[in-house]
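*** Residues and shapes ***
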Amino acid sequence: MKLHFLLTVALSAGGIFAALAHDGTMNITGTITDNTCVVSADSQNLTVEMGNVSSKQFYRAGAATRYEPFTIHLERCDAAASRVSITFIGTPNSVNSQLLAVTTQAQSAQGVGIGLYDSDKTLVPVNNLSGGTALTSRQANVTLPFFARYVADGSNVSAGAANATITFTLTYE
């Protein structure tokens, strides 16, 4: 009886050890930097006023409104910072994932997304790192200019609220 009990325990323990074997390897990489800036108080909660736009303006896919400027101000940039890039984080448009989706709610506009652009008016796709802005070594305060505009995503545009909320993260080199 004791032999049968010990044999059962020994065989059961072997299954436990097999379950603990590792099946893969994960590498964790990153960089610790001290060359960052502080987002100024006036840029921590921005509102970009897009105005009232006629749905007739969107006569084809890609038709867009005028560029609406906005800026993000940075302060106390470390002298070692050489470049800053931004990622706009939000829900992508279901038809064109480079555009930001308008918030889905009762009476929302349909068939339109929001394009976000850098200072050269080059589209910065949602959830992707921008090309970045070079910083000079003695540039303690930085103004990052951007633009937003409505863009028809290819489907019929219908009237309604066309709002969205995004966050942004800054990456430094």
